[in-house]
Structure formats: structure tokens, C-alpha cells
Amino acid sequence: MSQAQLGGAERDLYRDTWVRYLGYANEVGEAFRSLVPAAVVWLSYGVASSYVLADAIDKGKKAGEDFLPLPQLD
């Protein structure tokens, strides 16, 4: 367990669960490129790219929560 988990911090879906391994899907696709159809390789890139995009959106939303709203201009 990481220090963050021991301290009672929120669990990160994209770092602390099995979902993390979806980011490596393209590596598996490349490893089997000579054995599987090209569509499978492209699909593995789609899975990995989706993971990266979802993680980036999640981290961006969490970072945005730390900022105070801008004051309204009259």
C-alpha cells in the first residue's frame, strides 16, 4: 500500500486499481502484432488511448476543484 492509502486519502481509480493496466493494452497488441489481425492491434491502441484520456480528464477535474471561482465583474 502507498502512503496515501495508509493516510486515508481518496483511492485513485486510474492508479490504484486494475484499470491501470488498460494503459498498457497497446503494448500487448504490439507484442502479438505478428499473430493477430491488424484490427486487434488498432483496438489495443484505442483501449490505451481511452484510458489516458479518461485519466487526464479525471485529474483535470480534480485539479480544478482546488481553485476558487473568479469574482463577478459588474
Automatic annotation (TrEMBL):
A single cellular component GO annotation: mitochondrion
InterPro entries: Mitochondrial_18_kDa_protein
Pfam family membership, one: MTP18
GO biological process: mitochondrial fission
Family: Belongs to the MTFP1 family.
Name this polypeptide is given: Mitochondrial fission process protein 1
Organism of origin: Prolemur simus
